[in-house]
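I am writing to request your help with a piece of structural work I have in hand. Here, with my thanks, is the record as I have it:
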Amino acid sequence: MTYTLYNAAGTGSFVVDAALAWAEAEYTRIEINLGNGLSLDGDLAHVNPMKQVPVLVLPSGEIMTESAAIAIHLSTMFPARGLAPSPGTTEHARFLRWMVFMSVNLYETDLRCFYSDRYTKGREASAHSDVKMSAIDQFHDACGVLEQELEKKGPFVSGEQISIADVYLVMLVSWMAQESDLSKFRGIARIRKEVERHPVAGPLLERHGL
């Protein structure tokens, strides 16, 4: 079974690249040239009308978008590889909760920070700054919520074992670290170090420039 990943270094493709490699899945990468987060030459339009990465073509030919959804799907397809806790457990419930939480509260604020113009069409340039600062503040708030959870039920997002959720978190925090000091979130910083040491995710962090 061969997967096809439409990939661009440093984007949301990272967590899918890591999940596929961690799962030891057979896959090929198609590298996409991006500008302002969108495909420059329309080479994604036939698989994703949004012209964004990642896109994963499953062995069946089914197309998946949205990095969190793809990571969750791959964790269920390769249960023996330990990308996520076993379904039906308390730890798996945490895994699902925080994957969705991060997608809604961290990924979305990353987008507002770096692509504020998408949210301020037709408005003065000063509005871009307001959107960006609001996004950074909300990112900090969400990190604070997650940090409290790590203190109570960590050390990892799902509990005692590292999962693809931790890799996803490191990707999202790596982006925002370009704009804001996140050092006060010690639990998240600890996860970053563990992901850096991971035999699969660590090398891919470097490859993706994260």
Q: What stands out?
A: The mean pLDDT is 93.
